[in-house]
Write a structure and sequence with these properties.
Order of helices and strands: EHEHEHEHEHEHEEHEHHHEHEHEHEHHH
Largest sheet: 7 strands, parallel
Oligomer: single chain
Strand content: 15-25%
Structural class: alpha/beta
Helix content: 40-55%
Number of helices: 16
Radius of gyration: 20 Å
Shape: globular
Number of strands: 13
């Protein structure tokens, strides 16, 4: 028996790399794996022994369905039109192709939406009626599916990356920023944010690491902010730009940080699972939801920013007594995705 794992894999995004590692670890060992990947070597480095198909070629991916016994949509928010309608259409065509070929479909650790257009909502609603089972990663996605009257087996648990193994936090004096470009911040908003980081890092912080979690999207942020003369001189001198090369590298850095301030969802989760002091900057409801579940300090970038409040929140996060019970509960709750996946694949292979 073989299964096609479909996701945003091999795209040099550490968050999706973490999702893939967790997903592969949860699939019964008697299944052969085929993974959609832009960069097959990157996927092979993550999970050795899998086959790959070019995810940038819809025709190649549809052809791969002829040689598998199941299709798993693995983690993330694939069914959304926020990136583009073209992206959504890619996944819908793949799902309809699987339905036509009578390939069982499982949605694992999925988010649903955002779906800004009524036509997108109609298409997704009708497409999902043909899946075998779903595990949603947040209450909003589960609630929307229920409001649609989706009549398939469904469960809901925290993001699967809460199950990713992490080294224990040892502490250190480096501040790590896992930020991304966002249209929610204009020059004034960035200035307030950077002023707060400058003040925080000026007292006892050896370095500020600008860690590009998504190589293609995040690495340009530092240069963009510098070109707009938004980074204070002191912060500029303390800053180091780095591109995340591997999950192991990132997790080691998190385990030795004084604080991680994350916009990226999976950077937030990986830092929190290590027990590192972590604060969220929410550009997207999924980040806000994860921070609230983990009882982490949170700033919603849709709201006006205040440097004093930011600095106070981050100082408190660095010095607060850490209680890992909330994180341990999230790890246990996230096992629901594995339970659904294993049960359904075992039924198919029986």
């Amino acid at each position: 028996m073989s299964v096609l794992l479909c996701g945003y894999y091999g795209e040099h995004n550490l968050g999706d790399d973490a999702l893939l590692q967790v997903l592969v670890s949860q699939i019964p060992c008697d299944w052969d794996l085929v993974v959609t990947a832009r960069d097959p070597d990157a996927v092979q480095d993550l999970v050795a022994g899998v086959s790959t198909v070019n995810r940038r070629s819809l025709s190649d991916t549809i052809q791969a369905l002829n040689h598998v016994d199941a299709l798993v949509f693995g983690g993330g928010s694939l069914l959304q039109d926020g990136t583009s309608f073209k992206s959504l259409l890619y996944y819908l065509v793949l799902l309809w192709s699987a339905r036509f070929k009578r390939i069982p479909i499982l949605l694992w650790g999925q988010g649903l939406g955002p779906l800004h257009h009524r036509f997108s909502q109609v298409l997704v609603k009708h497409t999902l009626s043909g899946v075998r089972a779903v595990s949603w990663r947040d209450p909003g996605s589960m609630g929307l599916a229920q409001r649609w009257g989706l009549n398939v087996p469904m469960v809901m648990g925290p993001d699967p990356v809460w199950r990713h193994p992490s080294p224990a936090w040892k502490g250190g004096d480096r501040l790590i920023l896992c930020w991304r470009p966002t249209r929610l911040l204009d020059s004034r908003g960035w200035s307030v944010l950077l002023e707060a980081v400058d003040r925080l890092s000026s007292s006892g912080c050896s370095e500020v690491i600008w860690l590009a979690f998504h190589a293609d999207q995040d690495a340009s942020l530092w240069n963009e902010l510098r070109s707009r003369d938004l980074i204070p001189d002191g912060l500029c001198r303390r800053s180091v730009q780095m591109q995340a090369d591997s999950l192991e590298q990132v997790q080691t850095m998190f385990s030795e940080a004084s604080l991680v301030i994350a916009m990226r969802l999976h950077a937030l989760i990986l830092a929190a699972t290590a027990g590192c002091p972590t604060a969220a900057l929410s550009y997207d409801p999924k980040v806000k939801a994860a921070a609230q579940l983990a009882a982490l300090p949170l700033v919603d970038l849709n709201n006006p920013l205040n440097a004093d409040q930011l600095n106070h929140q981050w100082q408190s996060a660095m010095t607060a007594q850490r209680d890992g019970s909330q994180i341990q509960q999230l790890k246990r709750d996230a096992q629901l995705h594995q339970i659904m996946l294993v049960e359904e694949l075992e039924k198919l292979s029986a």
